[in-house]
Design brief:
With 246 residues, the chain is an alpha/beta fold. The protein has one domain: Spore Coat Polysaccharide Biosynthesis Protein SpsA, Chain A. It has a seven-stranded mixed β-sheet, sandwiched between helices. It is built from seven helices and eleven strands. The longest helix has 15 residues.
Length: 246
């Protein structure tokens, strides 16, 4: 069985979430924080040997105050992030378990993930070396200028919306990060693609939404009803006493 390490990206500023009490990965969703919904999808898998969450350095004290017990019981590694998302992932890559053959990078604020989607993207990555979930864009796409005026209608043929997890063979991802230089990237697939290795796309689902706004949080609450929700061992109410970012 291939062995996977998982990096949960949670070091962003959550500026679009517009909540003075919570950053989006730590906001309550049903009975637990968003990031724990995401983490549990991987913690319950036999092929996952390591789960890391990357948080902003300024959040570490409050994160550990609220989630320290969860982290200890679940065996999640906490990593401090960097200035950009790529810097944060690079920090996590330095903490990889020596036995991990593949690395899956997932948005901590993307909690509505089904086991079968993970199965498919893990299998594709094991076959091709690099794979990610994505969905084809079906609506009409407009390019809009700074003044809110439409500049062009963009053909949607061949356009896909990237999702996570994005999964890579360990050596491919490490090589891509080592050669990334100072270039910015919106996701890890872009970094790997630039390094010369193709990235395969696996059909995801609109249900696998990323929480960006308060409306997304409400949608995610309904989306969870359509997904299996295995309970974490001994964690019936893991943070009923959570005051993080309140």
């Amino acid at each position: 069985m291939a062995k996977f390490a998982v990096v949960l990206a949670a070091a962003g500023k959550s500026s679009r979430f517009q909540d003075t009490h919570y950053k989006k990965p730590f906001v309550p969703l049903r009975d637990r924080a968003v990031w724990l919904h995401s983490a549990e999808k991987f913690l319950n898998r036999d092929d996952v040997i390591q789960v890391m969450i990357v948080i902003a350095p300024e959040d570490r004290e409050r994160f550990m105050d609220s989630f320290g017990a969860n982290v200890a019981i679940l065996g999640v590694d906490v990593v401090e992030g960097g200035q950009e998302r790529t810097d944060s992932v690079a920090n996590a890559l330095e903490r990889l378990n020596d036995q991990a053959e593949y690395v899956a990078i997932h948005d901590a604020a993307r909690p509505c993930l089904a086991a079968e989607w993970i199965d498919h993207v893990f299998l594709k990555a094991a076959t091709t070396g690099a794979a990610m979930l994505a969905i084809p864009i079906t609506g009409t796409v407009k390019r809009v200028g700074a003044k809110g005026v439409i500049e062009a209608t963009v053909p949607r043929e061949g356009l896909w919306e990237a999702q996570t997890p994005q999964v890579f063979r360990r050596d491919i991802l490490l090589k891509a990060y080592a050669s990334r230089g100072g270039q910015s990237a919106t996701d890890d697939a872009e970094i790997v693609q630039r390094s010369g290795h193709p990235v395969s796309v696996v059909n995801g689902s609109p249900i696998n939404l990323k929480i960006t706004t308060k409306e997304d949080l409400r949608l995610a609450a309904h989306a969870l009803d359509a997904l299996p929700k295995p309970k974490l061992p001994g964690m019936a109410h893991p943070f009923a006493d959570d005051n993080l970012f309140r």
